Amino acid sequence: MADKPELRAFTVNQYGKGADRTTRWTEIGAAWRTQNGNLRIQLEAVPVNGQIILLPPKTDDKDDAASQQAELREP
Description:
The protein is mainly beta. Helix content is about 0%, strand content about 40%. The chain contains no helices and 4 strands. The protein has strands spanning about 5-15, 20-35, 40-45, 55. β2 and β3 form a beta hairpin. The termini are far apart.
């Protein structure tokens, strides 16, 4: 297992309606690739909504979790 995680784990919650709608991204853990190719996930919290989004680590200041909001699709 590598020291740095391969993926970061987030939960995303949306609040409000219409123009007042706000999205909150909360980092809750990380994931590492195991020797056999599986993922080992370590969570610091479990989201009430049951949804966890795994994203690659930041590569620069512009690449943060909030920039991923456009890719979030409601089930």
